[in-house]
Amino acid sequence: MEGILYALVPMVAWGSIGFISNKIGGTPNQQTFGMTIGALFFALGVWLIVKPQLSLILWVFGIIGGILWAIGQSGQFHAMQYMGVSVANPLSSGAQLVVGSLIGALIFNEWTQPIQFVLGIVALILLLIGFYFSSRRDSDNPLLKQSQHRLSDFYKGFRALFYSTIGYLSYTILFNNIMSFSALSVILPMAVGMLLGSLILMKFQVALTESVFKNSFVGILWGIGNIFMLFAAAKAGLAIAFSFSQLGIIISIAGGILFLGEVKTKKELGWLFIGLLCFIIGAVLLGIVKSY
């Protein structure tokens, strides 16, 4: 029970990032920059408490991973701007799950037993169905009628999700499949890389605006989710921790609709519910696959 309670924290923390940051405002680059500042302060606090040893190789790969993460997060913020939080977040999570699982199974041989292939394939099919229904648009939506550019924005959102997924998956593969570091040890080098990555994306044209400072609290939220993800994995196992963390899309969808006023027709709400249900079942099945 304790492990499940721990797992609820990253679910809420990570699921809230999108709509809180968009409620605060700022450009995607400002959101990413502010978030990385908060993440760095959080990482410094963790380092002062835990005081792990930091080797040169930890710094090098931690910074590289942080830069890749910044690319992923910036792409996600751009996608939210074009598509809305309630659409972009589930698509982003789904893309990472589908492509990441395929890479793990086909390249790194993570699926070795027949039951893993059966459950894994069913999960991927459900995620693809979730993709379709989560992104489906109703021609009667007033937002589509108000702007002739709305459809082109949606295509821009998909392009942003493409490089976001590459960034996120690259950093995940680096830390999970190529190198193996303690999360408490790598969090500071990674936070430095995240900040550096956001500066590179801004072409070092730094402006410490109000939205940047406010978005730094979102970075602290990200760090809290990371720590509790570790606690959840230790208490309840990786399968539970992983599955619950993916359920953050429920929070992001609800937040986008309730707090950001993203308009959905009855048809779109129905399609979104079907897509969300497919995402949840697919994520839980992938969590079971990981437990073998």
Automatic annotation (TrEMBL):
Where in the cell?
A: Cell membrane
Output the InterPro entries linked to this UniProt entry.
Answer: EmrE-like, Sugar_transport
Give the matching Pfam families: Sugar_transport
- Under the cellular component aspect of Gene Ontology, which terms does the record hold? plasma membrane
Topological type in the membrane:
Multi-pass membrane protein
Q: Which GO terms describe its molecular function?
A: carbohydrate transmembrane transporter activity
Transmembrane stretches in the record are: 6-25, 32-50, 56-75, 87-108, 114-133, 154-175, 181-204, 216-234, 240-260, 269-289
- Which key words are in the record? Membrane, Sugar transport, Transmembrane, Transmembrane helix, Transport
Q: Which domain of life is it from?
A: Bacteria
Matching entries from PANTHER family are given as: TRANSMEMBRANE PROTEIN 144
For this chain, the family text in UniProt reads: Belongs to the GRP transporter (TC 2.A.7.5) family.
Q: What is this protein called?
A: Sugar transporter
Organism classification, top ranks? Bacteria, Bacillati, Bacillota, Bacilli, Lactobacillales
